[in-house]
């Protein structure tokens, strides 16, 4: 596996692959890999001639009181893991190359990014959209792979790609979970053993809503109340929001008549965790 740091070198290599008629699969990440990341890489390996993974902790998507400085990083470990699943190139840019002196161009998706994560993390999605556009322009993939755990991010990126006529297919991939249901996340490393156990209440809460839904409940007030009730059973978990929204528009719905998604965020110790669960009538 080759490691490329400079954006211009990465782009030259991508243009060469394109001229050779090769399909490029791309997995953008912030590193500190877990099985969720590796599942995206394996999917890309199955579907594409060349697989590129980026490892870049993007400062633009962190707020001033968030965890940019302490976000887990272990590049040698990540490179070993990526190589083991068949990645061809790891693109590992530096801040000064991604955002050089004088950088002043940003990408913003408006309506989809206003609520949920966008409300609690102002400018987060501006940072996400900007870095994703830059990465797509550098790597020039045919397909880019995103996990559904960051459901709002997935929809923001899909909307951006459609609106800007970008020639790339965004491939959604299912959330990967631990055996006890906790969604895999690099931020899970912040959890103490007791907090790690407490965090499983997020999955149990989503499962309880799913069970109620499967029994015929379509009223989202009642479904959300069920999620809140289960979350309240764990006093060390502090939910920030629980919402049920249309799976495409991310607008709140009162009664589920088409695919909807339960989205939640909660603080568990020092970790802020998010999760999702799709409800399909």
What does this structure look like?
This protein is α/β, with parallel strands linked by helices and 281 residues long. It has 2 domains: 2-173, Rossmann fold, CATH 3.40.50; 186-279, Pantoate--beta-alanine Ligase, Chain: A,domain 2, CATH 3.30.1300. It has 10 helices and 9 strands. Strands 1-4-3-2-5-6 form a 6-stranded parallel β-sheet, with helices on both faces. Strands 7-8-9 form a 3-stranded antiparallel β-sheet. Helix 6 packs across helix 7 (151-163) and helix 9 packs antiparallel against helix 10 (220-231). The mean pLDDT is 97. Beta-alanine binds at residue 61. It comes from Candidatus Fervidibacter japonicus. Pathway: Cofactor biosynthesis; (R)-pantothenate biosynthesis; (R)-pantothenate from (R)-pantoate and beta-alanine: step 1/1.
Keywords:
single chain; 281 residues; alpha/beta; Rossmann fold; Pantoate--beta-alanine Ligase, Chain: A,domain 2; 2 domains; 6-stranded parallel beta sheet; 3-stranded antiparallel beta sheet; 10 helices; 9 strands; globular; ATP-binding; EC 6.3.2.1; cytoplasm
User: What is the number of helices?
Assistant: 10
Q: Tell me how many strands there are.
A: 9
The N- to C-terminal Cα distance equals 44 Å
Class from secondary-structure proportions = alpha/beta
State the CATH class of the largest domain: Alpha Beta
Q: Which percent bin holds the helix content? A: 25-40%
The biggest beta sheet, please?
A: 6 strands, parallel
The CATH topology of the largest domain comes to: Rossmann fold
| Outline | globular
Please provide the ordered H/E string of secondary-structure elements: EHEHEHEHHHEHEHHHEEE
């Amino acid at each position: 596996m080759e490691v490329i740091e400079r954006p211009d070198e990465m782009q030259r290599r991508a243009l060469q692959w394109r001229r050779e008629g090769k399909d490029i699969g791309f997995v953008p990440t912030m590193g500190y890999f877990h099985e969720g990341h590796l599942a995206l890489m394996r999917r890309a390996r199955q579907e594409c001639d060349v697989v590129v993974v980026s490892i870049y902790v993007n400062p633009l998507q962190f707020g001033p009181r968030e965890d940019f400085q302490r976000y887990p990083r272990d590049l040698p470990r990540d490179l070993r893991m990526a190589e083991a699943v068949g990645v061809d190139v790891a693109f590992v840019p530096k801040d000064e190359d991604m955002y050089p002196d004088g950088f002043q161009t940003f990408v913003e998706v408006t309506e989809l990014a206003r609520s949920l994560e966008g409300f609690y993390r102002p400018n987060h999605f501006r940072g996400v959209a900007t870095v994703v556009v830059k990465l797509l322009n550098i790597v020039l993939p045919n397909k880019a792979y995103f996990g559904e755990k960051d459901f709002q991010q997935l929809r923001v990126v899909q909307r951006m790609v459609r609106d800007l006529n970008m020639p790339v297919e965004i491939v959604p991939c299912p959330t990967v979970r631990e055996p006890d249901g906790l969604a895999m996340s690099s931020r899970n490393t912040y959890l103490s053993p007791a907090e790690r156990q407490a965090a499983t209440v997020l999955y149990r809460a989503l499962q309880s809503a799913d069970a109620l839904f499967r029994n015929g409940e379509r009223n989202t007030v009642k479904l959300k109340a069920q999620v809140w009730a289960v979350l309240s059973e764990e006093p060390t978990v502090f939910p920030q929001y629980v919402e049920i929204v249309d799976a495409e528009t991310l607008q709140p719905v009162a009664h589920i008549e088409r695919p909807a998604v339960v989205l939640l965020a909660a603080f568990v110790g020092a970790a802020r965790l998010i999760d999702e669960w799709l409800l399909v009538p």
